[in-house]
Amino acid sequence: MSEKIELLGLSKEEFAAEVAKLGEKPFRAKQLWQWIYNRGVGNFEEMSNLSKDFRAKLAAGYTITRPKIVTEQISKDKTHKWLLEFADGQRVEMVYIPETDRGAVCISTQVGCAVGCTFCHTGSQKLTRNLTAGEIVGQFMVARDAYHEWPSPSDETRYLSNIVVMGMGEPLHNVDNVFKALKIISDGDGIAISKRRITLSSSGIAPKIPLVASELGVRLAISLHAPNDEIRSRIMPINRKYGIDELMKACQEFQKQASWGKYITFEYLMLKDINDSLDCANQLIKLMKKYKILAKFNLIPFNPWPGCSYEPSPKNKVTAFSVALEKSGYSAPVRVARGQDILAACGQLKSQKIAPKAQD
Ligand code: SAH
Ligand code: SF4
d(Cα 281, Cα 291) in Å, to the nearest integer? Predict the structure, then answer.
């Protein structure tokens, strides 16, 4: 018997084609899409407005597979972390960071990461594989299950209001699947998270950056972490491939292509005695002015993990750095670390299964 087809992760067009193959009219595809992505139903039997015959054909040839929850933890500050497992046993982590009446789900895009930033727990794990579009969408659906946000509530009343693509992996090393997944997640007939509420964070894969505006249309964050090539190449090996000049030109191109959400958030990890001097802050300001970038900064306190060699920058230096940027007209808040007691903060995510072998 041939294997069943996974419905999660099919584009709307592919999805409609499968329904057509079963001899059903196009409006049936929309109904099925709504059952899965608007109501969160994973069992064909419950889809009461579809005919018995259609449901039987679906059950015989198709599946809707969410990742399995291996463990979940809730931190003192209510940050929620899940360890999720896919069909082949590979695992990733996902985090929900609640504010008072809303919050962001931080999703992963790869098992491990090939970029190998020296300060990042995920990067110490090497790349095992890309996640499929269905696995990326499935993650968010698990979070929605936990907070009972089915059917998709109106935008104003959701706890899971935003998505940050800032979990494990480099999203722009997995463009096809990530873009496909985010198009499904933002589709108005289903999960319906507006693109304005989605932020994709990249370590700076320069040639792919303009596509985030031209093909996807979500917000962009760049993990910059240094104002010059010398420091950046030391802490982020990717900078030897795509240096700061190429990165800034890609950011200019993004801003040209973006019809809204032109501001780019530059994430800047504050590492003691590495990149936290006032001189570095001034170089950053010069850099943004030189390339005329519409920039906001997010200063990130370094979150230590077992075995790392960096230390967080002291509070007074972080404050001085922030003040210098703000004085030049750039927003530069210091990010409050969340979920540290359960290793759920930025850069701390790691799947517990060690990757057997790195891919390209
Ligand atoms: N690969 C993408 C998205 C995932 S990493 C990227 O690098 O942008 C999400 C954010 O966490 C990045 O800004 C990353 O630089 C930051 N980060 C990594 N390690 C960290 C650590 N130990 N403490 C704080 N932030 C960290
Ligand atoms: Fe990969 Fe991002 Fe971690 Fe760098 S910071 S190793 S790009 S996940």
Answer: 16
